[in-house]
Amino acid sequence: MEKIKVLREKTGAGVMDVKRALDEAKGDEKKAEEILKARGLEIADKKSQRETANGLIDSYIHLGKIGVLVEVSCETDFVARNDEFKKFVHEIALQVAQSQAKNVDELLKEELFKEPGKTVENMLKETIGKIGENIKIKRFVKFVLSESTIVC
User: 120-131 and 83-98 helices cross at what angle (nearest 10)?
Assistant: First the structure.
C-alpha cells in the first residue's frame, strides 16, 4: 500500500492504474513510473482532438521588467479550477517569461528551463495524462520593458 501511495503522489495517476503498473513491473517503482508515463502519453494522444472551450488566463511579472499573460484551455470548467491545472498554467507563464519563442509552436519545442532535457510539449502531454482531459496552450503575450515589440 505504501508503494501505491508514494507512486500515486508522484505521478497523479489513479489508485487502480498505479496498482496495475506496480503489478506489471513486479513491484519495481521506477519501472512502474515509466509504465504510467507511457500510458499518460497514450491518453494525451487519444484526447488531442477533443474541444477545449474552458480554461484559464494567468500572468507573471518578473522584477517589474517582463510581463507575461498566457491562455491555456481545457475541456471542462471543473478541470480549470483544478490545482494541478492551475500549477501547469503558471509554469507555462514562467516558461514564457524566460523564453525567446515567438509563438505557441516554438514554445512547445523549447526545453524547460526548470527541467533540462524535457520540452514544454512533454510537460503538456504528461499533464493531459494526469488530468485526463485535452489541454491546449492557446496563446501568450510577453511585454519587455523599453521594447516596442510584443511577442505573441
Answer: 170
Helix (H, G, I), strand (E, B) or coil at 106: helix
Angle between helices 29-47 and 2-11 (to 10 degrees): 40
Rounded Cα distance between 75 and 89, Å, is 14
Written out in words, the top-level CATH class of the domain with range 54-144 is: alpha beta
pTM of the model: 0.72
pLDDT at position 31 over 90: no
**Domain extent listing, the chain:** 2-47, 54-144
The pLDDT assigned to 30 comes to: 83
CATH H-level superfamily of 2-47: Ubiquitin-associated (UBA) domain (1.10.8.10)
Q: How far is CA 33 from CA 1, 11, 18, 104, 115, in A?
A: 15, 7, 8, 29, 17
H helices of 1-152, in order, are 2-11, 15-24, 29-47, 77-80, 83-98, 104-109, 120-131
Tell me the HSE value of 6 on the side-chain side, using a 13 A CA sphere: 10
**pLDDT tens for each residue of 58-108:** 999 999 999 999 999 999 999 999 999 999 999 999 999 999 999 999 999
